[in-house]
Specification:
Oligomer: single chain
Order of helices and strands: HHHHHHHH
Structural class: mainly alpha
Distance between the termini: 62 Å
Strand content: under 5%
Length: 187
């Protein structure tokens, strides 16, 4: 068993994959399989001690955090992630936004980033927050996923489902994103 776990760790290290369950198992293997002869001597093979489960979990969280930052930049444009801490901060909302929402939800197969953006745009429209809509629309423009015309059409379409007042906020956010994007393109 110890050799199999060591082989799994070696393969994971070669591939750059974190395997906290194997590391946690290996950390406890000495206690589980330890044999002492009558003199009290340990006859188990000498193996390097694996990282404690907490350390392995922390490394996994750091890896998820880094991937979440990369996904933020993929979703909203290069440099967007600089608004977030480079390492897990200890603030549950900030850390879960990075390591769960972006690393595990936005990166899932089944929907493209564009599809997820349109869904998020629709949800943001229901709360009538133009500043959120501006961020979402800016990401679509930056990544060439949506054109200004498509975003304007989305605002009109959303009006039928969210109501004109909330769609007015969506239109304001979309218009601000288009204006910002157009100004950056002309520079």
């Amino acid at each position: 068993m110890a050799k199999d776990l060591a082989a799994a760790r070696d393969l994971a290290a070669t591939l750059g994959v974190d395997i906290p369950l194997v590391e946690a198992t290996q950390a406890g293997i000495r206690q589980t399989l330890q044999r002492e002869d009558e003199s009290g001597a340990d006859d188990s093979p000498d193996e390097p001690q694996a990282a404690a489960p907490e350390e392995a979990a922390a490394r996994g969280q750091e890896r998820l955090h880094r991937f979440g930052l990369q996904m933020m930049d993929a979703a909203y444009g290069p440099g967007f992630s600089t608004q977030m801490p480079a390492e897990p901060s200890g603030d549950p909302f900030i850390d879960e936004t990075t390591s769960y929402l972006f690393a595990q939800v936005w990166s899932r197969p089944g929907l493209s980033v564009r599809d997820r953006r349109l869904l998020t745009l629709g949800v943001a429209a229901t709360v009538g927050r133009p500043e959120l809509i501006q961020i979402i629309a800016r990401g679509g423009l930056t990544n060439d996923e949506l054109t200004p015309e498509q975003l304007r059409e989305a605002a009109l379409h959303l009006a039928a489902y969210t109501g004109w007042c909330k769609a007015t906020a969506a239109h304001a956010g979309i218009t601000a994103a288009i204006s910002e994007h157009t100004q950056q393109e002309t520079k």
